[in-house]
Structure formats: structure tokens, C-alpha cells
Amino acid sequence: MEIEVKIRGLMMDPNSGTPIVILKDVNSETLLPIWVGSYEANAIALEIEKIATQRPMTHDLLRNLIVEMGARVERVVVTELRDNTFFAVIEMRSSSGDFMMLDSRPSDAIALALRADCPIYVNEEVIQASHSLTGEQAEESGGSEDEEWPDVIGEAGDLPM
């Protein structure tokens, strides 16, 4: 089963300094942290804050290419968590109705979803696997897996999508 999520926040991992996108289930308080690269975090943050750049960024270029080819992004799905690595797909439909699915890193898929104004989904198994993983990490560090994630950008309701 797939669960629709929204971006809850964008923060830095205090231990590694790596950016984290926090996804939140639209129907519950379930959170999913996904560690991303700094370039992708910047692309996500710029789009959330609606900051225009002088030249198109890579994700803008990708959206423009999809639109010019007559296709549209229908949704993105975080499909798998394997060996501490998240996997995603971008689901598109051509102007003739043909369905296309592209393999993607979740960070790129999320950055594109923001630009294409399409929903983001996560396979339920990914959320369960992530909670098992973060619970083990919390036990090792002496913390609790139920700790509140800090809010950096704003409430999910404040973010565009």
C-alpha cells in the first residue's frame, strides 16, 4: 500500500551535517526522514521558499523538458529502502496517454514533484523499514525513536504541494 506524504521540514543531521527531508503522512503523524545531498536539499528549499534563480536549475530543466515533450508528472513514489538507501520512481504520462516510469533518487523525485505540483507517495514497507532502522539507531545513541523532529521550514500545511 502507498501512503501520500507532504514535506514536513528540511533540517541538518546534527551528527553528520547531512541534510534531511522530513516527509509526513497526510493522514497521521507518521514521519519519514530521508537523508539527501546538499545540492538536492538546496533545490528543494529554493522551491519551497519560491526563490527564483537567474537560470534554470537541473530540476527546473527536467520539468521544462517533460512539459515541452507533452508529458506530465503524475506522482513520485519512494519505493524501497535497501541497505540504508532509499529508492524512488517518477511516474509520468505522455500526451498520447502512455505511462512511463523513471528510476530516481528520492531527493531528485521530491525536487521535481515540488516543481510539477504533483503528489508524493511512500510505500508502507519503506516507512516500516525506516522506523525499524531509526529505532535501532535511537537505542544505540540512547535516544527515543519517538522524539520530535525539529521544525526548520514550517508545518506541513505551510508548504506548497
CATH superfamily: Bifunctional nuclease domain
Write down the overall mean pLDDT.
87
Shape: globular
- Supply the number of helical segments: 4
Radius of gyration: 16 Å
SS class: alpha+beta
Structure summary, number of beta strands: 7
The third-level CATH topology is Bifunctional nuclease domain
Q: Uncertain segments of ≥5 residues (pLDDT<50)? A: 136-151, 153-161
CATH architectural group: Roll
Please characterize this protein's 3D structure.
With about 160 residues, this protein is of the alpha+beta class. It has one domain (about 1-160): Bifunctional nuclease domain. It is built from 4 helices and 7 strands, in the order βββααβββαβα. Strands 3-2-1-7-4-5-6 form a 7-stranded mixed beta sheet. A hairpin with a 5-residue loop joins β5 (about 85-95) and β6 (about 100-105). α1 runs parallel beside α3 (about 105-115). The radius of gyration is 16 Å and the shape is globular. The relative contact order is 0.21. Residues about 135-150 and about 155-160 have low confidence and may be disordered.
